[in-house]
Amino acid sequence: MKKNILLLAFLLLATAYGVAQPGGGNRRWINTNSPEVHADQTITFRFQAPDAKDVKLNAQFNPQPYDMKKDADGVWSVTVGPVEPDMYPYEFVVDGTRVMDPNNPDWFPNETFKGSMVEVPGKAPYVYSIQNVPHGNVEYVMYDAPSIGATGRLIVYTPPGYDPQGDKKYPVFYCISGTTDTEEVYFKVGRANFILDNLLAAGKAEPFIIVMPYGNPAYYFPPTDKMPQGDLFGTELMKDIIPFVDKNYRTINDRLGRGIGGFSRGGAQALRAGLLNTDKFAWVCSYASGVGTEDFEKNFTNLTADPDKTNREMKLIWTGVGNSDFLYQMASDFNVVLAKNRINHIAFTGSGGHTWMNAKLYLHETFQRLFQTANY
Fold this sequence. Notes:
The chain is α/β, with parallel strands linked by helices and about 375 residues long. The chain folds into two domains: about 25-120, Immunoglobulin-like, CATH 2.60.40; about 135-365, Alpha/Beta hydrolase fold, catalytic domain (Rossmann fold). The chain is about 30% helix and about 25% strand. It is built from eleven helices and 17 strands. The protein is globular and about 70 Å long.
């Protein structure tokens, strides 16, 4: 009798759970698999919306949206491709409203709308692929930022073999997020940790710490009377972030052991922080960004007054941009003004646009150059 009562209770609970799923009322909830990446590199996307009139798929691998079709269960679907192997953000547009894929746990970190992510694997591992190699540690960190009256957040990668109680010290590379990106983007989309893991395993890079700060504190922490005017991130970088990292991690606390880079807006922030503070940074990278010609000539005289001294001190100035990036001209003009002022630098031009597919390649290129020539 007791067993029958328990069985009945279980069935009632299961029935209640079944009708209480998203969709409302007593509608049957269909378990949709999305995205489903097939062996031929096509992808099937599915989205349950029985009452919707129109559902489209927007994906970064195609400039035009895809129309989706609804089946008898109210599941909209479309199969696309084959798609070039890489990682891509996508979204559904349901009767004009952008929505994430509720069946996909992978999403693009952003200040506003957060698209879903799909990865199409290739036949061979890519530079960012998760491979069977020693992996470093990634941790989420909160820090006090009294210079702007806030509590900030970082993601910090320490390489394989890093021992917080050990004697070995490591150089540090600061990766700054781009416009509307959060500090998570270099980890979840850029996969900076896996890129460096793979390079270290192949003997193509030196081990270093990667610090991934949030580059736009004014968005989450609106200015108050306690906050200074102007460049909030630049202020907290110098006054709060770098001192925090040097205090809490085993860092090489000098200019030869410190580099900085960033994508898009973060690239401009990296150029300003790095090139205007050469006493703090010897390695500076810009991913799809630049500094305006007039701005550079006027404000970066610390570099241009004595180019020979600059070239002796700076171990790396690296710029990268895709040939169809909307910031291509800015990046190109910046390379021209560097050359005009006889400042040594490496200019890398790839294919493609202003995407994180390209940003991962820039990380891969620069990680092989960072901290290679300094004498520790």
